[in-house]
Design brief:
Largest sheet: none
Number of helices: 17
Distance between the termini: 29 Å
Number of domains: 1
Structural class: mainly alpha
Radius of gyration: 20 Å
Number of strands: 0
Order of helices and strands: HHHHHHHHHHHHHHHHH
CATH class: Mainly Alpha
Shape: globular
Strand content: under 5%
CATH architecture: Up-down Bundle
CATH superfamily: MFS general substrate transporter like domains
């Protein structure tokens, strides 16, 4: 039987197509341009990698702090869409503004703002999943979101590469070429978001009450206490904290790491384009595999694969090795993200999806803060980039062990 998407499901998937363009920009062109700005200012390769990591850490920490409060507010009737729109606007405006920065510190400040908008919007986007589809379709829809996000982001990325790679031939300065690239990304992101914004209806919610902000803090505290009592969800959050740390750190710092090693910038960009292309069929594959195999087993396979990727990255020295790394990341990136999202959706109350995804974001973004900070700090203290990257593999081991513990706990039956 052919799997057919509803209108709401299609519109939800389209937002992944839109925001993934920003994700690809952050992991490819942005760190290379920052490398240019940092080099012009006289920063060393070690400091360049460290400062990029610190900026990513600050952005993720801010979202980890803001996410749960806004997530709790978003669970009130009629709140989710406006808050989602606010973060989307901050991200898109911040993205365009990056093209106007001519100094490395200002660029990093604007990057933090844009990343907060992007990451914040994802909290509410992810929590919309129970509203747009049925529980038995979540694995597939979540996987399709990532899959089409990967392949769809290639279109604006290729458009961005034209002014960036052929700036001299087109008579463009590098800042002008980058402004065009950031503008293309922002327009694509907003355009792909419009169908979801127009059609989304919040089905699961908590009724509004006077003093919504104060009540949100109260409900957040109650949720934190309840999460500790729900052992399956609590252990999953701990496991997610560790294993997604490695995933996000690899995504955030792959190009920066390759640039710091002196690898060819054009080769890095094309290799990461290959990551998106490879990720498309593999994300769909994991969604289909979830129909035949337990989601817990598939997530475990992805965590172990990422452990191997992290170990491989320690020995990265040549361009061909980076290409191999890009292909391996593409094979498992969509699976681990999509299945984690749909798995968590099934073990939490649907009417509290906003606040629970706010907690998930603390673990996800908080972990990314930890990962990039560890890599940056170890790199600066030891003056050894490979040693900094080696720290990532340890986190996958801890995440795997905690996830297996969570998987053994029976699922709570919800009315």
């Amino acid at each position: 039987m052919k799997f057919k998407l509803t209108k709401q499901e299609k519109n939800w998937v389209l937002y992944d197509v839109g925001n993934s363009a920003f994700t690809l920009l952050v992991s490819t062109i942005m760190p290379i341009y920052f490398n240019h700005l940092a080099g012009t200012a006289g920063l060393s390769d070690v400091d360049y990698l460290a400062y990029w990591g610190y900026a990513a850490s600050i952005a993720t920490l801010l979202v980890a702090l803001l996410g749960p409060v806004f997530g709790t507010l978003a669970d009130y009737k009629g709140f989710k869409k406006p808050i989602f729109l606010a973060f989307l606007a901050v991200g898109a405006v911040g993205c365009v503004s990056l093209g106007l920065a001519k100094q490395w510190l200002l660029f990093l400040a604007l990057f933090v703002i844009a990343k907060v908008g992007y990451s914040g919007s994802l909290i509410f986007y992810d929590s919309m999943l129970p509203d747009v589809t049925e529980p038995e379709r979540m694995d597939n829809i979540s996987s399709l979101g990532y899959a089409w996000g990967y392949i769809g982001s290639c279109l604006p990325f290729v458009a961005c590469l034209v002014p960036v790679l052929f700036a001299d031939g087109l008579g463009l300065s590098m800042p002008t070429a980058m402004l065009i690239a950031f503008g293309i990304t922002a327009v694509w992101w907003v355009t792909m978001s419009l169908p979801l914004v127009k059609s989304y209806q919040q089905k699961h919610y908590v009724e509004r009450r006077p003093g919504a902000v104060g009540a949100a803090f109260s409900r957040l505290w109650t949720t934190l206490k309840n999460a500790r009592q729900e052992k399956k969800a609590f252990l999953f959050l701990l496991a997610f904290f560790f294993y997604i740390d490695g995933v996000y750190t690899i995504i955030d710092m792959a190009t920066a790491y390759g640039s710091a090693l002196g690898l060819d910038s054009t080769g890095l960009l094309l290799a990461l384009l290959v990551t998106q292309i490879v990720a498309f069929p593999f994300a769909i594959l994991f969604g289909r595999l979830a129909k035949k195999h337990p989601t817990e087993k598939l997530i475990s396979v992805c965590i172990l694969a990422y452990f191997g990727i992290a170990v491989f990255a320690i020995f990265l020295q040549h361009q061909w090795q980076f290409w191999m790394l890009a292909v391996m990341v593409g094979m498992f990136q969509g699976g681990i993200q999509a299945l984690s999202r749909s798995y968590f959706t099934r073990i939490i109350p649907a009417e509290q999806s906003g606040e629970y995804f706010g907690l998930l974001d603390i673990c996800g973004k908080g972990a990314a803060f930890l990962g990039t900070t560890i890599v940056s700090t170890v790199t600066q203290l030891t003056n050894n980039m490979s040693l900094g990257v080696a720290m990532i593999s340890i986190l996958f081991v801890i995440g795997f062990l905690l996830f297996r513990m969570a998987a053994k706990i029976p699922q709570t039956v919800r009315e």
